[in-house]
Amino acid sequence: MDNVVTLVVLVLVILFVVTVIIRTIRIVPQATAVIVERLGRYSRTLEAGLNFLVPFIDKVRANVDLREQVVSFPPQPVITSDNLVVSIDTVIYYQPTDPKSATYEIANYIQGIEQLTVTTLRNVIGSLDLEQTLTSRDQINGQLRGVLDEATGRWGIRVNRVELKAIDPPASVQDSMEKQMRAERDKRAAILTAEGFKQSQILTAEGEKQSSILRAEGSAQAAILESQGQAKAITQVFDAIHRGDPDPKLLAYQYLQTLPKIAEGSANKVWIVPSELNDALKGFGSMFDAHGGGSSGSERTRRPERESAPAPETGLDEVVLEDPGEALKRARAEAAGAARDAEGVTRDLRGTGMDPGPQA
């Protein structure tokens, strides 16, 4: 019986010692502050590491996280200066700097920050219209941070940053804004299309202008080269003609060869007879008479003489010269006959309705 009582007492003593040790030794994690009260009053703040407490006298009141924290508040309806209700979500970045003030100055600093944010947001947004609210996020963030930092400073809280996560205007306003933006985009698209069409027309006109200029320059150069070639060919022909020194008989013969080419083709209804045709016919007739008829007449004249004349000892026929006066008379008569023949041809051409050209 005594052994059992002794054993129970020993166990109780061991439990008491363990409890005292646990209450005496306090290990605080990094970036954490522990508020300790002694007999109900603030005693001290324990920092990170190993700390010792007086058991049954010192009591841990709160553990304060010293790291920067983020809290997101639900959407809050706010009225703008143009009487439109917008819904705004806010995000607060804060950090406790004084664990004692955060514990004893306010019961719930997170709820206090939330309510202070809502009231400050309503004051700031109430002085702005919808367009300014949508485009002045940085200004609103700066004003909120200044007011919150000043109010939470005595709570041992530092507000590092305030962000507006979303600003949602009413559905009707959103529809109107979408239509306005759609109209603006359509306007910009139409302007860009018109500018592109204008640029394309300008570039096309410039290209056509350049191509026309190049074609004109090519045509001009080709015409110049062609005229230079023709001039060179004509020069060479004239040089060849001058070097050949043609006589009037050859020219008359060329006239006669050219006349059939003038009448070629079924569409040619008019013959053009140059004014020099009479002279050409005269020269050609003289040439023909000189080589044809004249020689035959002289041969008829001289033939009896050659037949009656004795053959010379050399074996060659003796050539008898005609009287110059008679030869001149005969040539004049032949020329007059050639002229009469040319006049007859001209009259025939006129009778057929063809223009013989100017008379010599």
Automatic annotation (TrEMBL):
CDD domains: SPFH_paraslipin. It comes from the Bacteria. Residues 288-360 are annotated as: Disordered. GO terms for cellular component: plasma membrane; side of membrane. Residues 23-181 form the Band domain. It is found in: Membrane. Residues 315-325 have a biased composition (Acidic residues). SUPFAM superfamilies: Band 7/SPFH domain. Keywords: Membrane, Transmembrane, Transmembrane helix. The keyword Endoplasmic reticulum does not apply. The keyword Cell division does not apply. Signal peptide: none annotated. Residues 299-308, 340-350 have a biased composition (Basic and acidic residues). It is a single-pass membrane protein. Pfam families: Band_7. The chain crosses the membrane at residues 6-25. Belongs to the band 7/mec-2 family. This is Band 7 protein. The lineage of its organism: Bacteria, Bacillati, Actinomycetota, Actinomycetes, Kineosporiales.
